[in-house]
């Protein structure tokens, strides 16, 4: 983990939700674009050590958008089950 942190070009400010320390990690991000869900793995993102909130730099976010609009190459495609949460289920 130490080596990865040393390679970090960005330093993130503290978490805007809980004020925890934000560190650079490689994470899996889900990303919605025009009604479709995309999952990106090994995304360099700041992750809050307290609440786990993820923060992307604008450069990384733009790269993701570019990959989506370019349409390829996708490593694989998965089916995503969608459920509807109804209040009577929450007992
Ligand atoms: Zn936080």
How would you describe this protein?
The protein is of the alpha+beta class. The protein has helices at about 1-5, 60-70, and strands at about 20-35, 35-50, 55. It has a single domain, classed as Ubiquitin-like (UB roll), CATH 3.10.20. Helix content is about 20%, strand content about 30%. Bound molecules: zinc ion.
Keywords:
single chain, Ubiquitin-like (UB roll), three-stranded antiparallel sheet, 3 strands, 30% strand
Short structural summary:
This protein is an alpha+beta fold and 91 residues long. The protein is built from 2 helices and 3 strands; from the N terminus they run αβββα. The protein has a single domain, classed as Ubiquitin-like (UB roll), CATH 3.10.20.860.
List the SSEs and their pairings:
Elements: H1 2-7, E1 22-33, E2 36-48, E3 54-55, H2 58-70
Antiparallel strand pairs: 1-2, 2-3
Bound molecules: zinc ion.
The site of zinc ion has 8 residues, from loops.
Shape: flat
Structural class: alpha+beta
In whole angstroms, the N-to-C terminal distance is: 42 Å
Give me the CATH fold name. Ubiquitin-like (UB roll)
Question: How many domains make up the 3D coordinates?
Answer: 1
The CATH class label is Alpha Beta
H/E element sequence: HEEEH
Give a count of the beta strands, DSSP E runs of length 2 or more.
3
CATH architecture, by name, is: Roll
Number of helices: 2
């Amino acid at each position: 983990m130490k080596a990865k942190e040393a390679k970090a070009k960005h330093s993130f400010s503290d978490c805007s939700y809980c004020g925890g320390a934000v560190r650079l990690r490689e994470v899996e991000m889900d990303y919605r674009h025009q009604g479709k869900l995309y999952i990106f793995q090994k995304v360099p993102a700041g992750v809050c050590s307290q609440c786990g909130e993820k923060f992307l730099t604008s450069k990384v976010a733009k790269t993701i958008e570019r990959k989506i609009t370019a349409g390829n190459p996708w490593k694989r495609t998965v089916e995503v089950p969608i459920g509807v949460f109804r209040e009577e289920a929450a007992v």
